[in-house]
Write a structure and sequence with these properties.
The chain is of the alpha+beta class. The protein contains seven helices and eleven strands.
Length: about 300
């Protein structure tokens, strides 16, 4: 029933797009380019083009989990304070991307850097096709810039990793034995109200068979944090299952590149020139400000269609 509802919504979306296109065609015949109404029509056409692009991307996202919301992780890599600052820049970039897409992001856990930025962050991103879009961002992101933390203002290279996994709604697919879990509680860090920093409300869960460790400190109570951490664990285990299946397919087909730590996917160069380049597709742009403000749709589209 969920699948049928989603397909009916996509069909309705397509019919709406067709109607908007027909209406614009008729309006263009009625108004002269010199009239104020023509400018409005032109703006509507630009909006229609963007919506058509989003619809086109949805048609490529055909995996069963692509339409789901997701959990999203950012980790600073090599580069010390530079890398922590870069990880925070990436966090801002994806928060802006979520805003552009109409997604709702929630920070579940964040570890601040020693001097600046963040060491790691886990988000829950709610929205249709959030996983489908953000799975295209999995990998290593490299930044080249003049360092604001270097007194000599030299050029530095920093790395951060990004990982996404679908938020599983059917928890019956994954079986977890309580005996396989180690649950630790600790005092939450960062800004908080009455309870944060004063009680051991934060929860860390270790799944011993897989070695997966998840944690949550965003909720007010230990019970709420444990519940959210279990959701993350179930989704991580499901993602592990998906990756194992994908690995089997890759061994049979040898068609897709494996994504792992060390596989740099994108470079962001802010000095001596401005350029963001995706190394998987060779798609690039000089609009570094736009990209860091969350304009990532062209990169997603290039990646998805390169695998078609």
């Amino acid at each position: 029933m969920e699948e049928r509802k989603r397909q009916e919504e996509e069909l309705q979306e397509w019919n709406d797009l067709q109607k908007r296109f027909s209406d614009l065609e008729e309006l263009l015949e009625l108004y002269d380019p010199a009239t104020p109404e023509y400018t409005t029509i032109k703006n509507d056409a630009i909006k229609l083009e963007k919506d058509l692009s989003k619809f086109e991307i949805k048609q490529v996202l055909g995996e069963p989990e692509d339409h789901l919301s997701c959990f999203f992780e950012i980790h600073s890599g090599a580069g010390g304070t530079e890398a922590c600052d870069w990880a925070e820049m990436i966090l801002r970039m994806y928060l802006r991307f979520c805003e552009n897409m109409g997604y709702k992001p929630y920070i579940l856990d964040i570890s601040p850097g020693d001097e600046a930025g963040i060491k790691a962050c886990t988000l829950e991103i709610i929205g249709d096709y959030a996983y489908g879009y953000l799975k295209c961002e999995i990998g290593i992101h490299r930044l080249v810039r003049l360092s604001p933390f270097d007194s000599s203002h030299r050029r530095h290279t920093s790395f951060a990793s990004v990982f996404a996994y679908p938020k599983i709604t059917n928890t019956e697919e994954i079986e977890i034995n309580e005996s396989d879990l180690r649950i630790d509680t600790y005092r939450a860090s960062g800004h908080g109200g009455q309870h944060v920093n004063k009680t051991d409300s934060a929860v860390r869960i270790t799944h011993n068979p897989s070695g997966i460790v998840v944690q949550c400190q965003s909720e007010r109570s230990q019970f709420q944090n444990k519940t959210k951490a279990m959701e993350i664990l179930i989704s991580r285990l499901k993602q592990k299952q998906i990756e194992e299946q994908e690995k089997e397919r890759e061994e049979m087909e040898s068609s897709k590149k494996k994504i792992e730590w060390g596989s740099q996917i994108r470079s962001y160069v802010l000095h001596p020139y401005n350029m963001v380049k995706d190394l998987r597709t060779n798609y690039e742009t000089s609009n570094t400000k736009g990209v860091l403000d969350g304009d990532l749709e062209d990169f997603v589209k290039a990646y998805l269609f390169s695998n078609e």
